[in-house]
Amino acid sequence: MTEHCNYGCNECSHFSPYMRRGESSVESFERDLSALARVLTVYRFRFVGGEPLLNKQLVEHVRLVRESGIADEIQACTNGALLDRTPDEAIAALDTLTISWYPDPRVDQSLIDRTIERCRRLNTKVGVLKIDKFRRMQVVRPFESSRLVQEIFDTCEIAHLWYCQTFYEGRFYLCSRPIFTSRFLGKLDENVEDFRETDGIALHEPNLVDRLEALLHRKEPLGSCRYCLGTVGKEVPWRQLSPSERKHPVRYNDKNDELIDQHKMRRLRIKRHFPLRSMLLMAPESLSGLAARFSRSLSRD
Predict the structure, then answer these.
(1) Are 14 and 137 in contact (CB under 8 A)?
(2) pTM of the model
(3) pLDDT tens by residue, 20-53
(4) How is domain 16-294 classified at the architecture level of CATH?
(5) Cβ atoms within 10 A of the Cβ of 189, count?
(6) Pairing label, strands 235-237, 133-135
(7) Where do the H-state alpha helices sit in 25-156?
(8) Structural Rg of the chain based on CA atoms
(9) How far is CA 62 from CA 29, 121, 298, in A?
(10) What is the C-alpha to C-alpha distance for residues 165 and 199, in angstroms, rounded to an integer?
(11) In a 3-state reduction of DSSP, which class is residue 99?
């Protein structure tokens, strides 16, 4: 729903701490949603960010998803800090509210309890996930080993298990990373290609089903994968970035291969054949983020 966030989590997978304010527009979202609804069906449509509750048009976005018939379930994922300010109308519009509960004083047990009771009253399912660790994801210099890039791609739970597929300004991606990687690296004066153009496919051109099939079954890493640790980065404690760190990202001196959790990579090698059962779709306008998780079903009608 939004590119920006009221939190500044270190290692945010969407780069939200480094992004300027940007919200999904109803017009752009409706256009892209309409194109996708003609060729696929959706199990769960998930609104994410940034922080989705920052977008004042959340209810209108939910209405469009509901009317499109693309989803059986509509969900929003929030850090919870804005829940007391969120109107009942927004909570009631959802089928499910998921709270990522970080060790931050803005969200305490009392707020969680109030929200659970409120969701019960509004007939909205609620889930709470406590999170106190993130994984390293971003590298500044590209991996030199094509074998290692392939290994990271093959074991990436985001692309192959959690299915965080993303649509953005008329383009569709395997995950949200291509949308933001180039701009993040630009803050560190790294001159790279615009992965928004090279790593996605157009939603409003012919043969969409065939092109979606090809992307979803892709075996080769994307260009932006050379700057990503996927889901095998080492764990780091959750923390908030300082205003200075958000404005001027820190350039770490670690070697890329030193950032990999080798134990997890070995474990994921064994489970390499992930089940193709669901995807995550994000549809932001400009520099924002709306998302949807859906079981994969493409229509050629």
Answers:
(1) no
(2) 0.86
(3) 988 888 999 999 999 999 998 878 888 988 999 9
(4) Alpha-Beta Barrel (3.20)
(5) 8
(6) antiparallel
(7) 26-37, 58-68, 88-93, 109-122, 146-154
(8) 19
(9) 11, 19, 22
(10) 12
(11) strand
